[in-house]
Design goal:
The chain is an alpha/beta fold. The chain is about 20% helix and about 40% strand.
């Protein structure tokens, strides 16, 4: 259902470095690269992508309260790697990787502009 998500940034070059590192771990590259807009995903196999932009209206980029982008990882190890990359690239912690119940495993972080993201995967729920 979702084609892509766009997040505002105050500094496109700084944001590009942050998202290049995360996209590389997830196995994606840039699919669009314009002066004030960059998108990551896979054009050969359409699915949800993520992009950053300087707001087209010329106003400052701000964070949406209650907005979060979830990045699908293949397993808990990749969740941790994505989370660690985000923190190493200057992101901030919003909840270390761990089981959140019901087989939902996630790590939460904010990008350099304060946008909230997580890396997640579904694992087998614990046997009862």
């Amino acid at each position: 259902m979702i084609g892509y998500v766009t997040l505002g940034t105050k500094d496109i070059a700084r944001g590009a470095k942050f998202y290049d590192a995360i996209a590389k771990e997830l196995g994606f590259g840039r699919m669009m690269d314009e002066e004030n807009f960059i998108a990551w995903g896979d054009m050969a196999s359409p699915g949800a992508g993520i992009s950053i932009t300087k707001p087209f209206d010329g106003n400052e980029a701000t964070v949406g309260n209650g907005v979060m982008v979830a990045l699908l990882a293949k397993d808990p190890d990749q969740v941790k790697r994505v989370y660690d990359i985000a923190i190493a690239e200057g992101g901030s912690d919003e909840g270390a990787p761990g089981d959140r119940g019901g087989g939902f495993y996630a790590g939460y972080f904010r990008d350099l502009d304060g946008n909230k993201l997580n890396a997640f995967c579904m694992t087998a729920p614990p046997a009862e």
